[in-house]
Amino acid sequence: MSPRTAYKWLRRFREEGEAGLYDRSSRPCRSPRRTHEGLRRRVVELRRRRWTYHAIAFKLNLSKSTVARVLKARGLNRLSVLEPKPLPKRFEVKAPGVLLHLDTKKLARFRSPGHRVTGDRRQASPKAGYAFVFAAVDAHSRLAYVETKENERKESAVAFLLSALRHYRRLGIRVQAVMTDNARIFQSKRFQRVLRWLGIRHRTTPPYTPRVNGKVERFIRTLLSEWAYAHVYQSSEERAARLPRWLHYYNWHRPHSSLGYQAPISRLGVSVNNVVGLHS
Length: 280
Fold this sequence. Notes:
InterPro entries: Homeodomain-like_sf, Integrase_cat-core, IS481-like_transpos, RNaseH-like_sf, RNaseH_sf, WH-like_DNA-bd_sf. The protein is of the alpha/beta class.
């Protein structure tokens, strides 16, 4: 540093002690040429009427850069932010089982907590591999079913499909169609053959449009935030052991915003007191 900078810090230490060495704001004490508040409000008012930078600058006798700086600070530098956001296009099937959404998610295995918890990337679990989460969500009731598999092959996809169908059948839901993306495991001949044998239609999403399968996509995001990353697990086995408990909470007790903050099981109209029939 320059001698001038060194003397500046020495002077601050002599006048204020150790507290004078901390960083401080570089904002000037006074700004005589700063645009006054009334004029800034006028800029914002004209912008909300969808005036352009040039029109506002000409009207208020300001520079275009000043107008841009004021509007950027207010988050109005783009006219698009003034347009009302389009309502989401939601669709809901008429009854449980009409459509079942399927998807997968790959999660890393670990033998001890990793950097997400410790902050130390040297604490890794080399060659631990991955666990593959298969998820199914009923389009009407939002009832979910999840299993973890050792791999993401067609055999695992078929086994999960059959387990999911048995699970929904125990709840009185007969699946009529499934929706998946265009992943290879869902396009395999074995997967297609099982669907035809069971008389279930297969619907696929258009390329690069995961929002069409949005119900299971959103469920997986909830699954990650409330189960996979919600606790400090000592190992991936401990994480997997906690999955059934969380899934029961999601289906039976967790309020769902799209269902009027009722649990997904409420859509079936079954008696929640039938413990033997529903949980055996």
